[in-house]
Each structure stands twice: as structure tokens, then as C-alpha cells.
Amino acid sequence: MYYERPQKRRSIFSYFIVALIAAIIGGVVSAYIAPTYLYGRLIPMPDMYKGEVSETGEKISITPKEDISAVEAVAKKSMGSVVGITTVQVQRELFWEREIPGVGSGIIVDSNGYILTNSHVVGDGKAKDINVLFESGDKMPGKLLWNDAVLDLAMVKVEASGLVSADLGDSESLQVGQLAVAIGNPLGLDFQRTVTSGVISGLNRSVKVDQYNVIEDLIQTDASINPGNSGGPLLNSKGEVIGINTVKIRAQVGEGLGFAIPINVAKPIIDGVIKEGDFKTVYIGFEGDEVEICERKMGIDLGLDNGVVVIRIFPDTPADKADLRPGDIVIKIDNQEIESMSQLKKILYKYKKGDNATLTVIRNGKEIPIEIKFTDVK
User: What confidence category does residue 292 fall into, taking pLDDT thresholds of 50, 70 and 90?
Assistant: First the structure.
């Protein structure tokens, strides 16, 4: 008798094993075998392997070449106008004298040998010898024509013609964030005509240089400015001079803060020196002291934080003719507040002979206006 054994039913586990093995084989084929041996040979290459990925966001392009080329263009245009200035000052000791060398920078502002620099570069007028070094390597003696320690500006002349003069820009039109390029001799003549760049970091900055003097309306930049850069130009993207670098105050402030005197302050001085050989300013005609100094000397409280106390009136001067009196406290000139005598002197550079101004003074505790006419210069 023949007996037929019934078929054995497969378990669920066996199906799971088969599925697992198939998945492993498929993964190996798709991940390795297909990209290596099949795609591009037997079957078309999928887009994802071609690097063609769709972009849904806005594309951002960074082109550093533009800034670099601007700085390079400014340097090429202006380098021939930048000079080095060396000086020798005589310092008196107790029983002897000794010579102290100095170095700074300058900018040619007229082809006939007129050079603008800082007053402190030429020892505030006390330098014994001044020599000017040109890009060509030539060296010529310089003569100081004018300087003002309050403004920290000076004009030097060399006997030459046909020099490459710089273009002067407009410091009134500057905007924070604009390109700023400084050229000078940082740390001495070993690094002549060094170019550094940055941006205009701030405008109308005021920096206190000592207990009583404040330099105002300065241009702040993060372009590196070091000792020796003094008197060199700060330039805009067009290669125009927008300021004169000064490090006279930099050592007293934080790193990364450089300052320059706006070129518009120097323009009338340049014109006056070139035309007349000197520059003269209007004056009021009184001797005075800051409020703080007077309070300390006299031991009184004037009840004011700022202002200039009139000590003495000089005869036959605009102050005398306007009836300004000793004891008056000048707090404003044409609505511009006055803090110190040096600041008042700087403001007067904006006025010309024949101009009028209104002084606001405190007299006997009352605020009164005084009209003054600038009839003389000195």
C-alpha cells in the first residue's frame, strides 16, 4: 500500500529570511555595483549622480576682487604724491643740548612743492632741520611756511616744480562704511609708503588729547594707522584725499581706532599759503580761560559745565568794539557750543575778514547775544 506524505507548510520565519537576503543584495547592487559598473554604461546616469541639484534659495556671490582692485587702483594713483618727512629737533637738557630725530609723512598738494602734513611732525614749528623724501628716492630740504598746533596741521615747501600733486576730495560728503585707504611710513622709513585699508568707522568724533584740549570733527577709520603715518593721506575709493592721518592721539585710545583730520579743514589753509605764503585767521581779541580752570583758580562755582571766561579785552579789537566785557562767559558762537579756548580758535578758521557772528554770553547770570564783526586777521 502506497502512503503519500502531506506537504509541509513553510513557516513565516523562512519568508522573513528570504526578504532580508534580497534586501541586502539589492542594497549592495544600488549602492556600489550600479554606480560603479552600470550607470553610464548599461543604463543612463541618474541626475543625482551628476551633481545637478535644484536650488530653492537666493544665490549669494562674493567677489573680493572688487575691493582688492579698488585699493590697488587708489595706491597706484596716489603713491607718487606721498612723501616721507624727517626732522631734527633740539632738546635742551640741564647743561647741554641733544638732537632728537623724527619721522612722519606728508602729501603733495601743489605741483610747485607745497606739502601738507601734521604740525607735530615738524615739532610744532620747532624742528631744526626738515627733509622731504620722494617716491623717486630724491631727498630735498623743506621749509616750514605755516603750522598750527591746535589744528595739528602744517605746510612745508620744497624748491621744486612739476611734482605729482594729490586730488583733494570732499570730507563733508563722507558716509560711514565707505572705503578708506591710508598711505604713510608706519614705524619709520624702513616701511615707506605702506598701504592699509579699511572703512570709515565714524564721523565728527571728538577726542580729548590732554586735560584741557579736545580735537573735534575727526574722521574715525579702522585702517591701520601707526607712528610714522602722521601727516599721510586718508583716501577714498577715487584716490582723493579726504583726511590727514594723525596718530598724535591714537596711543591714548583703543586698538583699531585711527583718526584723521578732515581735508575740508585744510583747504582754506592750503589756498592761503599757496597764494600769500601764509595763512591768517580772524580773531575776537580777548584773553580767556575755560570755566573749569577759573573755578579751580578762584575757588568758586560758576554753575556751568562748559564755556570760556573772558579775563581781559584787548583794545581796538572786534571784542572791544562789540562791548564784550571781562567776566563774561562765552558759551556759544552762532549756536555752536564752546568748551575751550582751543576749540574756539579752531571754529574761527571757518570765518573770513568782514564776516559777522553772534556770541552768546552769560553776564550777571543772564544769557545775552552779542553781535561781533571780524574786522582784522592775524
Answer: confident
